[in-house]
Amino acid sequence: MWLFWLIVVVVGVWLWVSKKSKSTPASLSNNSPEITVSVPSNYSRGTTRVDLEETENGGYNIGSNLPLSLTLYGLDKNEAEKLATAMQQDQGYEINDWFSHLVAQKNVRCKELDEWLAKARPQFQALIQKRIESSQEWSSASELDKADMLDEFKEGAIFELPLRPGFTDIAWVLLDEEPADITVDDALLEKFKDNPQLYNHLLYAFSAGSKVQISAASDFRRKAFDELAEKGFMRRGQEIPIEDILLSMTLKEMQEIAGSDAPKKFSRKANAIEFLKTLSDLQQRLEKAISFRSLFQLRPIDGIDLEEISKAYAYSKEVARIILRTLRSNLNSQRIKNSAKEWAHDEGYELNAEDCCSSCRQQHGKKWKRLPQKLPPFHIGCECRIDYA
Ligand SMILES: [Zn+2]
């Protein structure tokens, strides 16, 4: 019997203790200093400080406390603060769409990027020229072959640049694909400022030009296309000129629509369309064969050159990408620096420069016993990082 009472007492004490410990907020508990408390939940992924200063000429210097601060022009105070806060909270990926759209809409410029471009563009052109001059095929090559060779020369030139962003695809767009007018998309971007994802879908739709596009109900773009149609950017179903719908069909499909009424086997689209248009019940026949609800077509937008817009957006996207990558790299180094202050890492540190430019790669694998003073990023778009050895 005593054993029974002992168990009752032990279980009772345990229940009382566990209930008490649950009702005591961690923040009030003095004997558990290892628990971090009173930190807002959105700070939970790390709070490495990112200083923000307004410059005399209306720009914002982001990260003056970090290895390589960036000076940005074209954004307002709220936007600069949003960017710095997001970086501080390790949300660089989450703000990607927002920031790309902002860079495109406000034509944001980055001083460090512009300085690199001012140096690298002439170097890039000279390296291409050198390859053209030393090519034996060039002078006798056809225009298409020249275009092909030029792409090859550009790639080689990018690799040969002494200092460049680690990602060669970013470097290529920045060096070679700057649009003539980066403000060409501003009016359109203004309409999508609260919905950058929808703008991305519109850009996708641009790539089809005036062709009819089929987006079935199960297609992941369908919701976006519905919304674009509602907003007047796309025609849908019955609104699309019947001739355009026919143009989007294959000869075989048109033959099926014509059925036994066809005078002969169609050999060319133009003849097929001409014949089908003479059928008085064409609309009904088409409705039987295709779902009109799933047909979409871009509506022409007055005064807007779609190709230039896509180009401008692609360029801005890379500007945004290189800024965010450089800031993230700063934060990574800063975190290592902060933790080095708290605990000595006896094995030392090592530089990983494998994915960067030739000047950085010279330092690849360099080791230090103590964290060095100069930490990556060493330049805009630098892909170096400090690792624990
Ligand atoms: Zn580099």
Structure write-up:
The structure is a single chain. The protein is α+β, with helices and mostly antiparallel strands. Among the domains are: 211-299, no CATH class; 315-388, no CATH class. Helix content is 49%, strand content 8%. It is built from 15 helices and 10 strands. The strands form 3 sheets. A 4-stranded antiparallel β-sheet has the order 1-2-3-4. A 3-stranded antiparallel β-sheet has the order 5-7-6, with helices on one face. Strands 9-8-10 form a 3-stranded antiparallel β-sheet. A hairpin with a 7-residue loop joins β2 (60-62) and β3 (70-73). The radius of gyration is 30 Å and the shape is elongated. Mean pLDDT is 85; it is low at 15-45. Zinc ion is lined by residues 166, 356-357, 359-360, 378-379, 382.
Count of DSSP H/I helices: 15
- As a whole number of angstroms, the C-alpha radius of gyration is 30 Å
Strand adjacency order, main sheet:
1-2-3-4
Structural class: alpha+beta
Task: Please outline the helices and strands.
Elements lengths: L1 H22 L28 E3 L5 E3 L7 E4 L3 H12 L7 H11 L2 E2 H23 L9 H18 L7 H9 L9 H6 L4 H11 L6 E2 L7 H9 L3 E3 L5 H6 L3 H8 L10 H8 L5 H8 L5 E4 L7 H37 L6 E4 L5 H4 L5 E2 L16 E4 L1
Antiparallel strand pairs: 1-2, 2-3, 3-4, 5-7, 6-7, 8-9, 8-10
Helix pairs in contact: 3-14, 4-5, 11-12
Bound molecules: zinc ion.
Zinc ion binds next to helix 15.
